[in-house]
Write a structure and sequence with these properties.
Layout (H helix, E strand, L loop, with lengths): L2 H48 E6 L10 E5 L6 H8 L4 E6 H4 L4 H7 L3 E3 L6 H16 L3 E4 L17 H8 L4 E7 L23 E7 L10 H12 L4
Parallel strand pairs: 1-7, 2-5, 2-6, 3-4, 3-5
Antiparallel strand pairs: 6-7
Amino acid sequence: MGNNDIDNVRSTKRFSHFSLHNFLANFRHISSNMLEAFLRCVTSFLMHLSYRIRKNRLHNIPAKGPALLVCNHVSFVDALLISASVRRPVRFVMDHKIFDAPILGLLFRAAKVIPIARARENPQILQQAFCRITSELKAGNLVCIFPEGQITRDGNLNPFREGFVKIVQSFPVCVIPMGLRGMWGSFFSRKYGSAMHSLPRRFRSHVELCAGKPIPPEKVNVCSTQAVVEKLLQNSY
């Protein structure tokens, strides 16, 4: 075998390896997107079966391009309700302890949920979360964060933390304020103590998700954003 033949064989092998690598990468990407789409369909079916969801002014959410959704946190299924209501896929930011729950963690990963932790708990997870969020926004996706950092225990809006402001400062995008009403007192809320510890008290109850006008990145701050969400919850926006 001559040198040219050897070079041709090597080139063929390199091309084959490159093609196989691209095929596997594309296959994983397509499979991941298909699984995410399937989970969104299942979520939408279950949420619309369980609740009467009223969608108010969701046209304020851009049809394409990145945006940061900011919503109050009332129950353990808030993310599912938002996912079932918004037409575009949404990347949700979730406490890392819930994200790592057995079995559910697999679904969270398939849904491309972003785990986060407080700086004093795990600064590495926090940094990774900010990198993931920025990456998703740069890719033109929607990211949703619950700036209270916890589910309400009294039905009132807790003070917003400044994490979402830091996100906008690092990658300027519009913030879409959102208000979720009607979930307080549900099976998944903490109105009666621990959530999901008693039989459901109601079924097919009315829930409303309302989106406010986009807030330009240069005008995003904690106080004004929380004020808008409070108005949405009071239906006085």
